[in-house]
Design goal:
The protein is mainly beta and about 450 residues long. The protein has helices at about 5-25, 30, 115-120, 120-125, 170, and strands at about 40-45, 50-55, 65, 75, 80, 85-95, 100-110, 135-140, 145-150, 160, 175-180, 185-190, 190-195, 200-205, 215-220, 225-230, 235-240, 245-250, 255-260, 265-275, 285, 290, 305, 310-315, 325-330, 340-345, 350, 360-365, 390-395, 405-410, 420-425, 435-440, 450-460. The protein has three domains: about 30-115, Immunoglobulin-like; about 120-275, Lipocalin, CATH 2.40.128; about 285-460, Galactose-binding domain-like (Jelly Rolls, Sandwich). The protein has five helices and 33 strands. The chain has an eight-stranded antiparallel barrel. Strands 22, 24, 25, 28, 31 and 33 form a six-stranded antiparallel beta sheet that branches. The chain has a five-stranded antiparallel beta sheet with strand order 23-26-32-29-30, with no helix packed on it. The chain is elongated.
């Protein structure tokens, strides 16, 4: 066979194969989507409980999804729906075939309300139960946590998890009512919610004068108890995604958690019934060591408030009284938003200062920082970056007002470009039994100037 004939033969074979494939693609059995008329199903009331309905898909397809019209959904050819409340429900079946999907509906009538099906502990906690058909109204717990992103489950004691009094006023009056009747949810945010408005985060988002008609649903998914709201309604943060993990639901406490922003942030909200005042639980009172040398792990976790903090930074000057390999680098950034930058330690107990009341630390203040330029609040005594370190003891239960009762010791640093050890003695405050938070602040406050500092060998010892 000549090369020319060989090429002609291969070409004919290719064309014949293409024609065969084309015929296969034109087969209507593989390509046509289903029609609503093909979406059929039957249903029957349970013999023992007519508020339970058994559904069966009689339609083709490899997947069947059900929406029972009561906030509940299911998947499968044969499913069961529970309808505790009297009424007419539009049940929708959606089927999926190789060609696409289609839906159809039927109306299912429930003749009587079945109170026994509504008498669930979680329903009663959330709504007040059948004896409170007007519903139960929840508000944010005044003691929090009000945790709006990036922190662990309960947040640190920084601005991410402050008390309600420290939040924006448009959040403080939010109310949310859950009713058993119709599983109704009502957002009573009184004009505005904290959230996202036209792509801008952390703003007050105007709300409609008339609450959006919405329902709630408690269900299990992947071993977790979930709370969802319909029609884009939300709690606390207005982002049109009202799905939350229920961390705790009791008569006087609703703690919900939401993973947001592609998994980058965790938000926690704690609510209590309107008119209920949560009891204040005091932490235990004890004496304990605190230490962190930044070469080895310390016995506490630093909480950062507008500070860039590296806990394993190469010592910039291995000389004098500090030859350790690793130290911490503390950076205060410029700007008014960073004027009160600091580190803190949230303790799980109240400090017994009669046993331990002297803190020590080493600090290195570089001379290249600008300690002269004045740029700060009008009431600031210096308005410039200060050559000083402050240690403050606070009562975290006071939230944003903790500074009003704090004890503070400030030490001036007179030697730059070398390690200096400072002592902070709180012996004058040994009668205080309410301190459960330690704050370390370098460079002063109430000014807008940046600064870079180094910290090492922090300790509270006998």
């Amino acid at each position: 066979m000549t090369m020319k004939k060989y090429i002609q033969y291969i070409t004919l074979l290719f064309l014949a194969s293409f024609a065969w494939v084309g015929c296969e693609l034109e087969d209507p059995e593989l390509g046509l989507p289903p029609t609503p008329e093909q979406v059929t199903f039957t249903y029957a009331y349970d013999d023992e409980n007519p508020n339970i309905v058994h559904f069966k898909s009689t339609a083709p397809g490899f997947k069947a999804l059900w929406d029972f019209g009561n906030g509940k959904t299911a998947e499968g050819t044969e499913v069961e729906g529970a309808f505790p409340l009297k009424g007419d429900y539009t049940v929708k079946l959606t089927i999926y075939t190789a060609g696409g999907s289609a839906s159809n509906t039927q109306t299912v009538a429930i003749a009587q309300t079945n109170p026994a099906m509504l008498n669930r502990e979680d329903y009663n906690f959330l709504t007040g139960g059948a004896n409170q058909l007007e519903g139960k109204t929840w508000v944010f717990s005044p003691v929090g946590p009000m945790n709006f992103g990036g922190e662990p489950a309960n947040g640190g004691n920084n601005w991410w998890s402050q008390t309600l009094a420290q939040q924006d006023p448009c959040m403080q009056d939010d109310e949310y009512t859950f009713s058993l009747a119709g599983f109704k949810f009502e957002n009573k945010s009184k004009g505005a919610m904290w959230g996202i408005d036209n792509g801008t985060e952390n703003v007050c988002v105007p709300q409609p004068g008339t609450p959006v008609a919405s329902t709630w649903n408690l269900y299990e998914a992947n071993g977790k108890v979930m709370l969802s709201l319909s029609n884009g309604e939300t709690i606390a943060w207005d982002d049109n995604e009202g799905v939350y993990e229920v961390m705790e639901l009791s008569e006087n406490r609703l703690h919900i958690r939401k993973v947001c922003c592609g998994g980058a942030g965790v938000r926690n909200y704690v609510l209590v019934p309107k008119g209920y005042t949560p009891p204040v639980v005091e932490k235990p009172y004890k004496a304990a060591d605190l230490f962190d040398n930044f070469d080895d792990a310390g016995n506490f976790t630093w909480v950062l408030d507008h500070v860039l903090f590296n806990e394993s930074f190469d010592n910039p000057a291995q000389l004098g009284n500090n030859t350790s390999a690793k130290v911490a680098r503390y950076i205060k950034e410029a700007g008014q938003v960073n004027e009160f930058a600091n580190l803190s330690i949230d303790l799980g107990y109240r400090m017994d200062l009669t046993q331990r009341h002297v803190f020590k630390l080493k600090v290195f203040l570089p001379s290249y920082n600008d300690y002269v330029t004045q740029n700060g609040e009008d009431w600031s005594p210096t308005k410039s970056l200060a050559k000083q370190v402050a240690v403050k003891l606070q009562n975290s239960l006071l939230g944003g007002n903790a500074w009003t009762t704090q004890a503070e010791v400030i030490q001036q640093v007179t030697q730059l470009d070398q390690w200096v050890e400072l002592t902070f003695d709180f012996g004058a405050h040994t009668a205080r039994t309410d301190f459960d938070k330690v704050v370390v602040q370098i460079g002063g406050e109430a000014h807008f100037n940046p600064g870079i500092f180094y910290l090492d060998d922090f300790r509270l010892m006998p």
